[in-house]
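Quick start: read one record
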Amino acid sequence: MDQNIGQAILKGETSLGIEFGSTRIKAVLIDQRFETIASGSFEWENLLEGGYWTYHLTDIIKGLQEAYHELKQVVQQKYGITLKTVSSIGFSAMMHGYMAFDSAGGLLVPFRTWRNATTGAAAKELTEVFQFNIPERWTIAHLYQAILNGEEHVPQAEFVTTLGGYIHWLLTGSKAIGIGDASGVFPIDEATQDYNAAMVAQFDELIADKGYPWKLKDILPKVYTAGEQAGLLTEAGALILDASGELQPGIPLCPPEGDAGTGMVATNSVRKRTGNISVGTSVFAMIVLEKDLTAVYPEIDMVTTPDGSPVGMVHANNCSSDLNAWIGLFREFSEAMGFKADPGQLFSVLFNKALEADADGGGLLSYGYFSGENITGIEKGRPLFVRSPESRFNLANFMRTHLFSAFGALKIGMDILTKQEQVSIDSILAHGGLFKTPVVGQKIVAAAMNVPVSVMATAGEGGAWGMAILASYMQNKAQQERLDDFLDHKVFKDVEGQVIHPDAADVKGFELFMERYTAGIAIEQAAVDHLVENGRG
């Protein structure tokens, strides 16, 4: 056992980050060198119930407890110490979505996640009113759609927040939210580092005739920036997190953040002209902007870094789900043939086949839409694979096409930033499970973005590690030390990354694929319409 780590645990000189991702809840404990010393996780999946993608409250609490319990067991096994306290805690989760509570703290309707494409009317109207893009995923779009629908729960709303904001409130009693997560709730004013007051007033005026007993600012969580303290772990919160009662209350919590913000921290992408891409069930790219965009684009979310800098964010609802499903099919075939393939080996073999493919994927076409896709205007998820008699149908092209498709919708938004708005990007830092296989994912993203793509050794830790870094920043920053300086000079000073530059043939191949992808969107929509009209939707 490392005696220094043992002493740090005993003294509470560690920081804990827990992130609720779309398929996994992960807990990470770091020391004062920002290295992971223990982790735990809980696998879960969203459910489609009553027309909405959701997670049950019982699963949220169970997952939180299981991830922490596993981390605590690791600490006991590795260091022989019972974890009783830490210096700071931070919670993060999938951004956006809608959780509305009444005055007694009861959930008024099941949690509506970012994955729902059910708020089109609200998003369109609010975008026109604010002259600011309001995506369908945003919390305010969910709230306004509920108003447009005349849903009975709306007058009873006492508190509306995100999943991260809910967890933080549950464990601290503080209705707080980090500015990065808040920027997916309602537009942020960079000057005030708070919700845009003029737009708040516009919203209140918009719904004035409804006679609700609340004003918008009253029911939204208070906005905090990175480095601020946003509450303390209560006795009840400590028991929720650690049912054994061994975790001590009173631990400071930093503002809860969204997974976009923790991804920026985990990849050291909070300075101007830097960007990151986070790959999972969904995919999003975030570029820290030097100047405002010249127009409003439905494909571009305007959000912020955890310390409040403006960010252009392109978010596609679908990325790895369809790809993973196909690899699962290959696994079944392998097992049927009597070969039990290691999952990591299976991904590695199939991903590397993509490097042998034709540059454009051989004329094949795929839409991996497990759910609706806002960027391309597809409301319902219907994965589709298409080929013509002239297509070069082989395994290499098949894999390359599905990897290309995973970034197809994202590419549409990124082209607006780079080609129309002339946004300069020095580099993209990537993280997510797709990059566990060396080189392949980076080459695909470099081709899509036409910029160098780096993967750091720390990127595999993901958002939970980034959240632990934000918790540590709150406690360990020097006076007036900015987040980007803290990351550059302390967290990442000795971290090396692997950089892959775009290959000209790959870039051209991706552009050719995108010509088919954009032209074929009508095919995808027609397939969805046909299935729905014939009762198989």
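The longest helix spans residues 57-79.
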